[in-house]
UniProtKB/TrEMBL annotation:
InterPro entries: Homeodomain-like_sf, HTH-type_TetR-like_transc_reg, HTH_TetR, Tet_transcr_reg_TetR-rel_C_sf, TetR_C_Proteobacteria. PANTHER family: HTH-TYPE TRANSCRIPTIONAL REGULATOR RUTR (PTHR30055), HTH-TYPE TRANSCRIPTIONAL REGULATOR UIDR (PTHR30055:SF223). The keyword Transmembrane helix does not apply. This is Transcriptional regulator, TetR family. Residues 34-53 bind DNA. It comes from Candidatus Phaeomarinibacter ectocarpi. Residues 11-71 form the HTH tetR-type domain.
């Protein structure tokens, strides 16, 4: 394998490694996966893998960040740019079906649950880097809306978990139970219903167009 010499080539090789590692980790589990397996899946030598990642743990954490952080940033931008809390919740509800159907995030969540007993430090790192950041963003959104008189909510931090709970459930359902047609759920309809009930519970007042 020819050595990558430009920054673009190095980035492409790193992304290829991350993609290959994700598939190997999902197929074999973190514990059973070997760096040789990942190198083979990426069509690289094992030595090349170690040029980019110092250990399997380092590679696994990079895979988690690579999958999750762009989605976290998208949701943060959505909440920041929405003109009201209602429109922010609408935006989250519209984005979640894409997140579940078209990204690797549900598989990552399933993998984290399966590895949590043996590798709690990796799971805690994901919680700090991803979940705490997301929940903190939603908490801030609700707290600002409460202060502005847009909503009625007791504890914004607890309410943020109510926002997230059906999303986490739907992600897990999609990778655990939806292997048969009768178990499939209309995620678009579910998220629309979730947002409607959230806004009703929070007392969000919708503007009516003339």
């Amino acid at each position: 394998m020819q050595r990558a010499r430009t920054d673009d080539a190095k980035d492409e090789r790193r992304q290829a490694l991350l993609s290959a590692a994700l598939e190997v980790f999902v197929e074999k589990s973190f514990a059973a996966a070997r760096m040789d397996d990942i190198a083979r899946a990426a069509s690289l030598s094992k030595g090349t893998v170690y040029l980019y990642f110092s250990s399997k743990e380092d590679l696994f954490e990079a895979v988690l960040r690579n999958v999750a952080l762009p989605k976290v940033e998208h949701i943060e931008n959505l909440m920041r740019d929405a003109p009201s809390v209602g429109e922010a919740l609408d935006g989250i509800g519209l984005f979640v079906p894409h997140l579940i159907r078209e990204t690797a995030l549900p598989r990552i969540i399933k993998l984290l649950i399966s590895e949590s007993g043996m590798f709690p430090e990796i799971v805690q790192s994901y919680r700090e880097d991803v979940l705490d950041r997301l929940l903190g963003g939603v908490t801030g959104l609700l707290a600002r809306a409460k202060a502005a008189g847009e909503i009625e909510v007791g504890d914004p931090a607890l309410a943020a978990r109510l926002v997230a709970a059906p999303i986490a459930f739907s992600a897990l359902w999609s990778v655990v139970f939806e292997t048969v047609p009768e178990a499939r759920v209309d995620i678009d309809a579910l998220m629309a219903m979730h947002v409607t009930h959230l806004k009703r519970a929070l007392g969000v007042i919708e503007e009516v167009s003339a």
